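Dear U.,

For the methods section draft, I wanted the exact inputs and outputs in one place so we can describe them consistently. I've listed the two proteins in the order they'll appear in the manuscript figures. Please don't edit the token lines directly; just add comments below if something needs changing.

First protein:
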Amino acid sequence: MALPREYPAESCPIARSLEIVGERWTLLILRDAFYGARRFSDLQRHLGIPKAVLSDRLGFLVEQGVLSKDSGEYRMTVKGKRLWPLLWSMITWGNDNYVEKPNRRTYRHADCGGMIGPDRRCHRCAQVPDVADLVAHPPPRPRKPGRDDPVSRALRRPHRLLEPI
């Protein structure tokens, strides 16, 4: 039996947030949207998600105002961009607890080239850059070098977040 999407008995901001981003696959879809994936086919190939599930999740994220859809492409909205600190926290928590150091993707401030720390601050200029001012750098030893979808290819080189793939 599927778990319900809504938590009507809860008057809690975490419960309300989970109603939007708490379903399986949703955070990975958002991660790829931050990386710049905009097309359904790119998201589907990179994530290996069933098409029906991806269609449902994208439709719901558009309905909730997290993504917008224009000319067949999905774009992060202002509301969606506000989720970046949540994803960043999950990235740093996962790096600290589960990912080997040689396989970590790093992030740099596009303006000055400084490394971004766990607190989202640039080590060089001490600013907390906007998500659009971050450049994701591939790990020195990619975990799955054989993947050949458009998102994987784009992320094998430095790539500014939110720029289309």
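Second protein (the one for the lower panel):
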Amino acid sequence: MYGLEPPGGVWRTDQSCYEFLAAQCHPGARTLETGLGISTALFTIWQCTHTSVVPWRIEANRLFEYLKEHGIETDTLTVAVGYSHEVLPLLDPQPLDLAFIDGGHGFPLAIIDWFYSASRLVEGGVLVLDDLHLRSVTAGLVDFLTEDPRWTPLESTEKWAAWRRESSGPLHEEWTAQPFFAPYISQQV
């Protein structure tokens, strides 16, 4: 994995994020995650209809081994192996109740993951963005979500944040449909 190993052998976020996710999830909740870690096991335990997009098969194999060893059913879990910018556009565009963005952390991958994942969120669906301490994750995206009235902030820490989508449908639109996002540059080029 390019010399990058997760601390403690598994990718994780803060306990408060897991608690927030648990409060949002119920059996049958339609969830999607870019990345794979403790959260993926939890989505499976919570019996969500869950898809995880992860670039490396070895991570998927380790997860399935862990779940099998612990007698956890995996019939509601799908792991799509590949880079999210390639896999997400190919997934069945089923509506989502929750999207957890915690995949690639290089710019602009979080934005790409948001674009493809959040466009599938139903009205009232929840977006969770992890690793806010990384500029490559937050650059432009958090500003946009903060200013767009179609996203309501729910909870946040220095590490993660969550928003509720107040609309549904595709996210592609021209800047003229985004008057809230200060479309003009104040200096001349």
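Candidate sentences for the figure legend, describing the second protein: The two ends are 42 Å apart (CA to CA). The first helix runs from residue 15 to 24.

Thanks,
Y.
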